[in-house]
């Protein structure tokens, strides 16, 4: 098996200085005294990337993703360890790398081709495709420093994909382009995949990693947490992001403690406290203080399969008397599509009035539809009123993330059982 990229215990350390004077002092002391702190951006990374692979690198901000790409591209050298790259690399890294702002777009295209070992004639033959894909018009002959960020990315990507690379490195730069251009880029990346090229990219778009990649790498604080199947790696990533512990080994213990009550909050211990969410709205007159996501046996879960019976419970503390309480939730995919959205009133269940100081628990029990395999987020809400006129007291966006595996292929956002019937009918002939 041929490997395009091989790294053996590579690490990269940067020196951090409190101020420019500290850097000068260290130079004057000629190494006899240190005025810096060592920061290890990546530490002891070992990996082998096969020819034709599409590899996605994920991780939180500051985990070392971009540094790893720069090491592979040869922009920076490792402090220790060894990295070997076989084949021509085209890199689309952070905005501004590889292009001279004083040169025109045309000049930068030919300069990049020369750096990659292509002759002027070879680049001239490819220039028409580059110009057509970039769609920046007359700006192709203007200095790059006059470009908008979107124009810059268009030209940089068009150049990278048209120099016939063996390895394409892509950082988050594509996020700068407009939606239409992003779709065009993804189509081109799939074409490069089909041609058997190696793609190595960093992305926060977990859906793209899941759909495009044959392998994924999860970094945390500069170290590799895991390398392998994208679904498995994404599952570990979600645990880090949401601080979710693997609860499979504790299922028996959890089932035994479901009836235990925390005296301080009067919430059953199986419920999770509200800690992680993206946004909170409302004055919390009715405050969501706990929740749980369980299977039909009452065991906490973060991994489900289409058709599973699940329970979503919300515990709300009423700071004032609430005459017409309402509770609801939304399940969204990574792109923000609302796949399932409902509330107690919409389901025809009218909650009883809640006195001041009371805690109430509302549980939604339902069968999980066959969504496309991936990760999904639950947002929850509590308020007062009716479907037509209501006030939201508490809205928690992305309160809980769970993963979903569909046992059957799902070509759309979700799948539903469909019966198919075939019959032959007599042909009708028009009479003359």
Please tell me about this protein's structure:
The chain is globular and about 75 Å long. The model is unreliable at 244-269 (pLDDT under 50). The chain has 2 domains: 3-242, Rossmann fold (3-Layer(aba) Sandwich); 248-415, Coagulation Factor XIII, Chain A, domain 1 (Distorted Sandwich). The chain has 9 helices and 23 strands. It has helices at residues 20-29, 65-73, 105-115, 120-134, 149-161, 179-194, 206-212, 230-242, 251-256; strands at residues 3-16, 37-50, 54-59, 80-85, 89-92, 167-170, 198-202, 215-220, 223-228, 261-262, 267-268, 272-273, 279-281, 286-295, 303-305, 309-318, 325-332, 338-343, 359-367, 370-371, 374-385, 390-405, 414-415. The strands form 6 sheets. A 6-stranded mixed β-sheet has the order 5-6-7-3-8-9, sandwiched between helices. Strands 13, 15, 17, 18, 21 and 22 form a 6-stranded mixed β-sheet that branches. A 4-stranded antiparallel β-sheet has the order 12-14-16-19, with no helix packed on it. The protein is α+β, with helices and mostly antiparallel strands and 432 residues long.
């Amino acid at each position: 098996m041929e490997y395009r990229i091989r790294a053996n215990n590579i690490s990269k350390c940067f020196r951090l200085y409190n101020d420019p004077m500290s850097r000068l002092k260290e130079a004057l002391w000629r190494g006899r005294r240190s005025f810096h702190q060592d920061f290890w951006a990546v530490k002891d990374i070992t990996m082998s990337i096969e020819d034709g692979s599409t590899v996605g690198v994920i991780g939180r901000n500051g985990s070392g993703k971009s540094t790893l790409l720069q090491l592979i591209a040869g922009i920076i050298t490792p402090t220790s360890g060894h990295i070997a790259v076989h084949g021509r690399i085209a890199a689309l890294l952070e905005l501004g790398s590889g292009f001279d702002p004083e040169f025109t777009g045309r000049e930068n295209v030919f300069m990049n081709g020369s750096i990659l070992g292509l002759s002027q004639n070879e680049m001239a033959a490819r220039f028409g495709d580059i110009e057509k894909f970039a769609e920046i018009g007359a700006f192709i002959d203007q200095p790059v420093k006059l470009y908008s960020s979107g124009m810059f990315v268009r030209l940089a990507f068009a150049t990278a994909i048209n120099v016939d690379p063996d390895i394409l490195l892509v950082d988050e730069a594509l996020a700068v382009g407009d939606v239409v251009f992003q779709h065009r880029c993804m189509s081109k990346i799939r074409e490069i995949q089909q041609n058997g090229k190696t793609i190595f990219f960093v992305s926060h778009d977990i859906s793209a990693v899941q759909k495009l990649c044959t392998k994924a790498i999860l970094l945390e604080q500069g170290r590799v947490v895991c390398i392998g199947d994208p679904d498995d790696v994404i599952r570990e990533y979600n645990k880090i992001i949401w601080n979710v512990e693997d609860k499979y080994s504790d299922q028996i213990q959890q089932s035994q403690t479901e009836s235990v009550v925390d005296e301080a909050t009067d919430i059953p211990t199986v419920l999770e406290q509200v800690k992680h969410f993206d946004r909170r709205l409302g004055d919390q007159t009715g405050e969501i203080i706990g929740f749980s996501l369980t299977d039909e046996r009452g065991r906490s879960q973060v991994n489900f399969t289409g058709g599973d019976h699940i329970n979503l419970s919300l515990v709300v503390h009423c700071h004032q008397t609430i005459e017409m309480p309402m509770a609801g939730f939304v399940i969204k995919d990574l792109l923000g599509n609302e796949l399932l959205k409902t509330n107690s009133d919409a389901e025809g269940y009218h909650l009883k009035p809640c006195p001041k100081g009371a805690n109430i628990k509302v549980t939604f029990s339902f069968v999980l539809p066959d969504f496309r395999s991936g990760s999904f987020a639950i947002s929850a809400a509590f308020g007062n009123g009716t479907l037509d006129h209501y006030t939201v007291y508490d809205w928690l966006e992305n309160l809980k993330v769970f993963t979903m595996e569909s046992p059957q292929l799902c070509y759309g956002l979700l799948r539903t059982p469909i019966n198919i019937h075939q019959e032959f009918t007599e042909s009708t002939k028009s009479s003359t």
